[in-house]
Amino acid sequence: MTQTTQVIIHAARLGNIEVLQELIRQKTDLDTQDEKGYTPLIIACYNNQYQAAKLLLEAGANVNAQDSGGNTALMGVAFKGYANIAELLISYGANLDLQHGNGGTALMFAAMFGRNEVLQLLLTHGANKTILDVRGLSVLDLAAQQGNTAAINILQA
Q1: How far apart are CA 64 and CA 92, in angstroms?
Q2: What is the per-residue pLDDT across 118-141, written as a single tens digit (0 to 9) for each?
Q3: Where do the ANK repeat units fall (predicted)?
């Protein structure tokens, strides 16, 4: 991993806008990946750094970049429950139905971890609730497995 990659990933994690702006001015690769495949955007989103994520997206970061496990920034915010960042990613064209290595989607993450505001947001924007993971489970199956009755109600509405 290059020093520039380390710097931009660290700046994204902390939401250091000044450093990110300078790296963007220097034409740093915004989709560079660390040893786990995390991009600056994935890191900024996962760490609830809305302004950093917005800056990276405005500068052309790939909204659908996937880490080594196939996870996207949208999957990360669905897991964490950051609806405002999910909305931002969707506004920049995030693919709602990308699947990671085990077939999971952002919608599945939201249902499994009780992030029902994000679940509703994804459904409102057209996320596909019929996709199955590698075990053949749907988002409804996963919500039921977790006892997330609110998600079950949302999915069946």
Answers
A1: 10
A2: 999 999 999 999 999 999 999 999
A3: 36-68, 69-101, 102-134
